[in-house]
Amino acid sequence: MSLHALPDLPAVDRDTFRNAMAQLGAAVNVITTDGPAGVAGFTASAVCSVTDSPPTLLVCLNRSASAWPAFRDNRALCVNTLSADQHALSTLFGGKTAMADRFAAAQWQTLASGAPLLEAALISFDCEITQRVSVGTHDILFCTVLAVAQGEARQGLAWFDRGYHTFSRQDAR
């Protein structure tokens, strides 16, 4: 294998980075919390597995988001991966809608952490927030998975190229 040096490239600015990240498809999730700081939720695609021992996810949250204080102060969250027909819920949790109105749009229950679990989610990860790291404008929340709830939906919702797309469990075969 032969390696060739690339010419010096300009520094990556915010718009270049955002345009490049638009090409990185991801599942759409509604992240919820409840606890001493109250109930809150937001839409996120910045969710990733970290390790399976112990089962750990990371979730990225902008500190300017209206939901941030609740996630900062609560020690629990639930990652609710949306099914293909829940794009309206994604938009609702991603906007400036009042928290009470966001949660009134769906049916919820709780597991071990007490964070709201979306009943119609493709899959939900009930978690304890075990570590926070601040990077730039965001906090990275490291979350130990306490329980997993599998939904009935067969198709999931993805975000790619600044739009919603669907995928199904059969696509993986």
Continuous helix count: 4
Can you tell me the residue ranges where pLDDT is under 50 for at least 5 consecutive residues?
none
* Overall body shape: globular
Biggest sheet descriptor: 7 strands, antiparallel
- What is the chain-wise order of helices and strands? HEEEEEHEHHEEEEEE
- Give helix % range: 10-25%
State which percent range the strand residues make up. 35-45%
Main structural class? alpha+beta
Strand line-up across the major sheet: 3-2-6-9-10-5-4
Mean pLDDT: 91
Total strands: the figure is: 12
End-to-end CA span:
33 Å
Whole-angstrom Rg: 17 Å
What's the short version?
The protein is an alpha+beta fold and 173 residues long. The protein contains 4 helices and 12 strands; from the N terminus they run αβββββαβααββββββ.
Report on this model:
It is a single chain. The chain is α+β, with helices and mostly antiparallel strands and 173 residues long. 16% of the residues lie in helices and 44% in strands. It has helices at residues 14-21, 68-73, 87-94, 99-104, and strands at residues 26-27, 29-33, 40-44, 47-52, 55-62, 76-81, 108-110, 116-118, 123-135, 138-150, 155-160, 163-168. The strands form 3 sheets. It has a 7-stranded antiparallel β-sheet. A 3-stranded antiparallel β-sheet has the order 1-11-12, with no helix packed on it. It has a two-stranded antiparallel ribbon with strand order 7-8. The longest helix is centred in the N-terminal third of the chain and has 8 residues, at 14-21. The model has no long low-confidence stretch (mean pLDDT 91). It catalyses: FMNH2 + NAD(+) = FMN + NADH + 2 H(+). InterPro entries: Flavin_Rdtase-like_dom, NADH-dep_flavin_reductase, RutF, Split_barrel_FMN-bd. It comes from Pantoea eucrina. Its EC number is 1.5.1.42.
